[in-house]
Amino acid sequence: YIAQQQATASDRALQESIATAAGPGTTTPAPDVSNSGEALRRLNETLGQGFESRLLPDALTSPFVSSAISSGRSKADEFIANMLKRGTLSPVGKAGATSALDTQAGNVRSRLDELGKTLLGADRAQLTNLANQKRQAAQADGTFDPAAAFSDINTAGQGLAGSFGSRFSAALPPGDLFDT
Hints:
Blueprint: H1 2-22, H2 36-47, H3 51-55, H4 62-86, H5 91-140, H6 146-171
Helix pairs in contact: 1-6, 2-5, 2-6, 4-5, 5-6
């Protein structure tokens, strides 16, 4: 019981150390973790299972998918409206073309959702690889600082999340998303 309480207090101290390290202009001395097994345990407990999905949740893709669909649909709707204005399309033809776009919307969403999942999977794999590197370091180095390792992983996750939109846009298929 006492060992469990000491471990819990130690974990709280580590969490406070991480929170303090995240603050602007503050530095936290590295904890003295002389046992590499203890350092690895602390790192694993701090990361927790599924940390990749917490740092890069599935919902991250939604605004970018929705924005791409909206943009693609607007472009297609504008094309149809211009055809109507030029007289190359009748009102009945416009209605048919608009209906065809509605039919395509589900397929476009599916393709873009898959693209987002693929990018997210690659990003999560990067975080997993980074965590595994930190775990190896924890096993090899008796003075390993799990708070610094967690901070590095968290920073990498924030960077990937912050750049996701531009990488998603760059990965969009060439051409129009909707056939007009």
